[in-house]
């Protein structure tokens, strides 16, 4: 596909469409022909490589996350703060109602720069970015592609905040472009309503259970950290101290017979123990399990947010209908007053409408159009949720579960490999010392045997020497 001959972003497509509507306005917004977008068939790579806490002085700190990756437009490398992620998602929720928007970690009550919070954010915001790559209508939008990934602006959050409020018509256009083959039905369709109602009940149940799982996983992760610290203390302090204080009394100065406190081995052990210590900081598979439950909870809340927005459209439409009824009542009073004046004065001037009456009629017309758009939007969102998002959400849950299990297995394997290197070295040195001790023992036994034989031989030779000549 020639990218220069077609719009690169959905915003450009919408702008072109608005220009066409000004030239040839359409009276029925449901009859617009939408051309399906062909997104690039390219393997996207994206990750958060590092998190850096910066000190700007006067006790003020902030964290930046280094995002690296590549797509059809080339490689990218950018630093973004948590607030950039937050404002991006807030904007996407407003621009894509009814669509699944991946969650990010919640805002921290404190500064959010402590190591545990930074690491949780780093892991879960990377999951957010990977999830965005699976939503091409968002990934290739200007908000994400040009502003978030490739903009040099240091304050993207402010750019997002200053964007103008999106209209109902713009939202409808975006959704129709993203879902051109959507089966939109009237809001009274029982099939769609049943699917959404059933799913909503399952979602509420999941939210309650996931909160319990997070508490349990956090407790296990805490115990795991305590266990790892105790293991480090055992091999780094307790056993070497035991060798020096207790065993040293029995080796009679032969320190080479010791293992962990043996001067010849200490450099190797020191390096391995440091590797284990660093791995313990970075790897705790229970943390990944906690991440899974935490992300599942945020994901469920994101879907609930989508369902809630659909319900809010009903409320917004009801308010609009109430406002229109008030305008109609006001117009009726104006018309009655006008007719009375016309009867009394029989004046042609009084028969004409005054400016205020025209203004009210215009409000009524615009209000009716907005009500129709809101009804259309409600039907579109209902169709998106019932036919697209629910099924996609269910599949994603299973896929995420399998992915997290694989991550846990890999992290456990990596941690045990590092610990095994240390233990194998300890065993090797211990076996060498045992073998050396056995050889020394055999040598001592042989020397003792030789000495006894030599003494016996001397005793046998002594009577012959004492015999008289």
Automatic annotation (TrEMBL):
Species of the source: Paramecium pentaurelia
GO molecular function, one term: phosphatidylinositol binding
Region (Disordered): 433-469
Protein's UniProt name: PX domain-containing protein
Highest classification ranks of the organism: Eukaryota, Sar, Alveolata, Ciliophora, Intramacronucleata
Pfam families: PX
CDD domains, A to Z: PX_domain (cd06093)
Domain PX: 43-155
Domain of life: Eukaryota
InterPro entries reported for this sequence: PX_dom
Gene Ontology CC annotation, any one: endosome
Low complexity bias locations: 433-462
